[in-house]
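It is worth pausing here to work through a concrete case rather than discussing structure prediction in the abstract. The textbook approach is simple: state the sequence, then state the predicted structure, then interpret. We follow exactly that order.
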Amino acid sequence: MSEIEMNISFPLDKDNFFRRQCPLCRREFKILLEEHELEDITKKGLESFMLEQTQEKDELEQKKPEEFHCPYCGQSSPHDMWWTEEQSAYLGVYIENIMKELINKNLIGPLKRSFGRPSSGPVSIKFEGKEMKKEEPWISPEQDDMEIFDLPCCERKLKIIEGWKDKIYCYFCSFPHIKNG
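Step two, the predicted structure:
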């Protein structure tokens, strides 16, 4: 099996926060990540779309996957469950493009070469196939629509809905915080 590597960028807001969505309560928030953390999230997101898994990956997933916590409802979910609908669709276009490229390269091309011209024998087989066209991935620019909240427990920051009055749970460790003001 060959490995495919892609660089995918997601829009960040003016403060470099990355949008997430709770898979349970469906509320959106933003987290401030280091560059390597954002690359890791993107890589894991692509992997979560792939159908074939290696034995090594299966063994890794038998261990408890890293979980994160919703700042609003406090519930936890695995790392690959926090995509917004738009981010998920955006990743899906990349995956479809990979699949189209593989089909074009490994199926359409060889079939055209093998059966593209009529044979001179008693049975004539001709293959007419068009290469699958790739879509251009697109995602909306990130809005500056939330307020920053400091998480002293993990020394990190996140952005939450403006005017949120209830507890705020740490995305990383689930510690509950009371918002002042």
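Step three, interpretation. The longest helix spans residues 85-115. The two ends are 55 Å apart (CA to CA).
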